């Protein structure tokens, strides 16, 4: 059975992207690879995409390990839920790196064939007395033109496409929408209800992990007579909820109604985090992304952003609660930019077994065992493997990795971590060798060895005599398709942890054929490990090493499996300009590599293990009793 997580942005860009995200209840390391479908925006241009299909009928599946974050960077559970976005743009999740699931191209809509993404059984409810409510006028339609980088040809962009979604006014000249609605934006416009004028909007902040974006509109006439929405409290189960937005099926505002079905830590398909989410049964369709969800008092209780698609389930939509929205806004106000949700960076094991607790000298039915600590996390210098965490800021942690949440409810332990801001300090109560103690741990966003999203407008790249080097990223894997990447590189991408901040897996993505590189033309997607005998830390380090090799006769590149490629330095240098001209490439390197190289690790600091080679063992993957915090 194929399952799909769809985003609610409606787009004509046809793309299927892997979504890794773990089920909060299972908190295991299994990660399903799911396709994201945009449900919130509608696009008018078609762009090519790579589609990977993995399902029970004749599809192939693979396993990927990843040491944790967080995404998202906690790990995904074996019961991972697939999510689709409401805006048609695809995105990636990061919680739990193990994946074994089906990819389904469910994603984008094309206007030419008028494909319908939503289930025809879903009925849009007449708003009744709510139809003329004043707060409906605060909901606007978003028109975005996207121009995504071409990760396979990193010196250029892909063909642009357009999509539509929803947003709403929050006051002070600002609007909220989903991050995936304005991903890789080159132009954003918004239009109010009952108005024919589109106004240019500016993206002030984009929170990929929480899938929220902050917009501003400078034109004063846009705000005339506008009343911003008021945020409400976290709803209770079975409370009525009304979703408002501009989904496909028409040009005017749409209203659907339902109830709150569940509130728990949820995997965000676009981001890399497991954050609090509200599950509702109101219909959420392409174009709803970024639109508000209201309670009966007309208060905004969250932002519609993704749905769950499955042959065995219907009407499962997700709303970002106001607690997550407030965290995003407070983060932006504190720092003048969005810094992200922090993580603890530890792999935890549940302590349900009484004998295990007794062996660890844990007297009560509580606590989780620290199995592994991420090398780049602040906890690495504070906690030790074998510690038992029994409290977080004086909140007791149960043996299943849960903490109290409202009346007669419990929620995943990582919920408490998500309430913190980057740089905050948490007090952990731990049992170490039978002794109770309290320690202070700083919380910061996770360092990804293979990022799910690339900051900036252009991926880094370096071209040496036709050899095209670039850092490995999830977007690159999606573009190249997993078959061409190879199992060994995929294993590193999904299983390994960064050993230090700034570490990257640098790959030779392709060779631009020329006389100077005869014999190497078929090389592609291979990790380069050393240059002239020096271990490569990242793409900037490689560029620095090449620039420093002015006295060497040969340029020697060492790859995986002891494969070696050698170029004569002077010949390679002389051929570079003609290669660039012949392939229409403006520069031999990306703009970020023109800056002086700064080695944050230090040339003399030794690494006790190969870079990018810190895999999680099989025992840490796919077991329900393990979870990343």
Automatic annotation (TrEMBL):
CDD domains: cpPDZ_Deg_HtrA-like. Residues 34-97 are annotated as: Disordered. Pfam families: PDZ_3, Trypsin_2. Residues 57-69 have a biased composition (Basic and acidic residues). SUPFAM superfamilies: PDZ domain-like, Trypsin-like serine proteases. Residues 450-592 form the Protease Do-like PDZ domain. It comes from the Eukaryota. The keyword Signal does not apply. Keywords: Hydrolase, Protease, Serine protease. GO terms for biological process: proteolysis. One of its GO terms (molecular function) is serine-type endopeptidase activity. Residues 34-44 have a biased composition (Low complexity). Residues 87-97 have a biased composition (Polar residues). Belongs to the peptidase S1C family. This is Protease Do-like PDZ domain-containing protein. It comes from Quercus rubra. The lineage of its organism: Eukaryota, Viridiplantae, Streptophyta, Embryophyta, Tracheophyta.
